């Protein structure tokens, strides 16, 4: 089944050229199927590229999925055309009285800042709290995963001596977990970050389970024991050339950066990089959508009380 995409989204043409099955809203309304409703809070500055990357993975599923892109109202993105946001995105205030089957929260280039100093932190906390009651399962990626682990479980991030940058091997730590169904014992995933969550902090938390980690990259996949929250510190959604674009960008900016680890053949940036993570990136998204969203959410999504009203009632001490 295809992913349902808003009419006119630029990603449609890219995915069609890749022979990815997509469906516009106009065609989807003719089918008597309730698609999974997935919200994507896109915090990346390169929003169009991230849209395409995530839609590529979501579409590789037997499920029909309706995607709603969200952006922060408290911080206006500087690298995305305003008309694009107005056409294809909604703010949290516009959806806070709705229910979704799942939500994806992306990474963001703010990892070296304390969480509370991020311009949209208060709004993100509100989204996290809303998602706990109005979304069946959440997938948090990179900084989004760090932020969620901090908010929900009080787990801090820590700075790395140098940027973790490249494609790293990971070992499965929970073979029977549904998220890892079909995974090889060792699999690859890209990382690109300056901070990390200590593996021991997640291992020692009674509500969390480590699913996959790397001797070089540390924690990669973790989950709450009820399956409601999935955390991925890497980027299984990355395109073949995403790391190369980041590498050339940092070089041009005069930043201290090494060639991405295990990315170029013979570590030679003049050679075409090889993507070694596509299969597991697709498998991760497919397993999350199937086992933690589709298999758990009811067919009928009921209306929920106003989120704002619930906050007001809790402040007044009223039962809800």
In CATH, what is the class?
A: Alpha Beta
Structural class by helix and strand composition: alpha/beta
The tally of helices reads: 11
Indicate the overall shape. globular
Through-space gap between termini: 39 Å
| Approximate helicity band | 25-40%
Q: How would you spell out the order of helices and strands?
A: EHEHEHEHEHEHEHEEHEEEHHH
Radius of gyration: 19 Å
Average the pLDDT over all residues and give the rounded result.
Answer: 88
| SS strand fraction | 25-35%
CATH-level-4 superfamily name: Class I glutamine amidotransferase (GATase) domain
> How many structural domains does the protein architecture include?
1
Number of extended strands:
12
CATH names the topology as Rossmann fold
| CATH architecture descriptor name | 3-Layer(aba) Sandwich
Taking the sheet with the most strands, its summary is:
12 strands, mixed
What distinguishing features does this structure have?
single chain; 12 strands; 25% strand; disordered C terminus
Descriptive report:
This protein has one domain (3-158, 197-239, 284-315): Class I glutamine amidotransferase (GATase) domain (Rossmann fold, 3-Layer(aba) Sandwich). Strands 1, 2, 3, 4, 5, 6, 7, 8, 9, 10, 11 and 12 form a twelve-stranded mixed sheet that branches. α1 crosses α3. The relative contact order is 0.14. Mean pLDDT is 88; it is low at 303-308 and 314-320. It is built from eleven helices and twelve strands. β4 (65-71), α4 (82-88) and β5 (89-91) form a beta-alpha-beta unit. It is α/β, with parallel strands linked by helices.
């Amino acid at each position: 089944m295809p992913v349902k995409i808003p009419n006119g989204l630029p990603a449609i043409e890219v995915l069609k050229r890749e022979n990815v099955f997509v469906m516009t809203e106009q065609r989807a309304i003719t089918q008597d199927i309730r698609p999974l409703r997935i919200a994507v809070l896109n915090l990346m500055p390169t929003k169009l590229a991230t849209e395409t990357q995530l839609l590529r993975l979501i579409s590789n599923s037997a499920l029909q999925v309706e995607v709603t892109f969200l952006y922060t109202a408290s911080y206006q993105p500087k690298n995305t055309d305003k008309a694009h946001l107005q056409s294809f995105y909604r703010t949290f205030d516009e959806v806070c009285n709705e229910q979704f089957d799942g939500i994806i929260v992306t990474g963001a280039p703010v990892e070296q800042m304390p969480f509370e100093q991020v311009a949209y932190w208060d709004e993100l906390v509100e989204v996290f709290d809303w998602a706990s009651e109005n979304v069946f399962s959440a997938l948090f990626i990179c900084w989004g995963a760090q932020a969620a682990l901090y908010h929900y479980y009080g787990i801090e991030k820590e700075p790395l001596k140098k940027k973790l940058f490249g494609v790293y091997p990971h070992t499965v730590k929970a073979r029977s977990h549904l998220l890892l169904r079909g995974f090889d014992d060792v699999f690859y995933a890209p990382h690109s970050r300056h901070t990390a969550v200590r593996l021991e902090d997640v291992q020692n938390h009674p509500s969390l389970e480590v699913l996959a980690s790397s001797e070089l990259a540390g924690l990669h996949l973790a989950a709450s024991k009820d399956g409601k929250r999935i955390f991925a510190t890497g980027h299984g959604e990355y395109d073949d050339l995403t790391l190369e674009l980041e590498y050339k960008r940092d070089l041009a900016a005069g930043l201290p950066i090494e060639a991405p680890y295990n990315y170029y053949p013979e570590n030679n940036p003049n050679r075409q990089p090889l993507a070694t993570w596509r299969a597991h990136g697709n498998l991760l998204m497919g397993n999350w959508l199937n086992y933690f969203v589709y298999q758990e959410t009811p067919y009928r999504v009921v209306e929920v009380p106003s989120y704002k009203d619930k906050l007001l009632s809790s402040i007044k001490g009223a039962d809800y």
